[in-house]
Amino acid sequence: MLKVYNNKMEPLYNEDKKIVHRDGLWHKVVTGILFNPQNDCLYFQTIYPKESYGFDRPDYIDFSIGGHVEGDETVEQALYREAKEEFGIDVNDYDFLGIRICNCNPTPNYKIKEFQFFYGLKTKQKLKEMNFKNSGNEVKSVLEINIDDFLSILMKEKNTITANEMLLDKQTRAGTYSENVLVSAEQIIPDYFRDKSILEKILTIKSMMQL
Q1: φ, ψ for residue 40 (rounded to 5)?
Q2: What are the tens digits of pLDDT across the range 20-58?
Q3: Integer Cα distance of 88 and 137 in angstroms
Q4: The whole model's pTM is what?
Q5: How many Å apart are CA 163 and CA 150, to the nearest integer?
Q6: Could you tell me the CATH superfamily of domain 2-209?
Q7: CA dihedral of 39, 90, 9, 52, whole degrees rounded to 10
Q8: Could you state, in order of their start, the residue ranges of all structural domains in the chain?
Q9: In 108-128, which positions are buried (b, 16+ CB within 10 angstroms) versus exposed (e)?
């Protein structure tokens, strides 16, 4: 169940997630962008196909951690839960990056009206040092991308960049690590190129890396 809001973010009632997206009702989600200031990298995920989408979603690369804020859960509680479920980690070092408003209709039967709460999450681990044995089975792979390379593709200066990737077995969560995997602009969620707030959040993380 999700908490439904009006367009002023005033709480109304709880509703089933499928109905929320079917009818295009306002709700909250949380997004955590994991970053490592020691190697200037951001971490992204791809996911296994989900029946809940109800449409053929391309295998986009998305930010590290994210999901719906459930029922009467706080945004911070959702961040802790999603970090544990998707990366198998405990969140203890994060900064609020702001709220993004998303209002789009991928299909007539799946509508997105979200207040997206963004956080920057700091880690000292490189991808090849990460262990996903305690994570759930939703995430298919994790990518480690230099922040300047990601900015260059986000600002359309480059169409392709390289990344390190950890491919995760769905059942065992064992990881297979590869370097210099090609990433193209077509793998990034299209809306991220149009929305300046995404660029602003990445630039904020870049400034945090330099502290």
Answers
A1: 60, 40
A2: 999 999 999 999 999 999 999 999 999 987 665 555 667
A3: 10
A4: 0.92
A5: 10
A6: Nucleoside Triphosphate Pyrophosphohydrolase (3.90.79.10)
A7: 90
A8: 2-209
A9: eebbbbbbbbbbbbbbeeebe
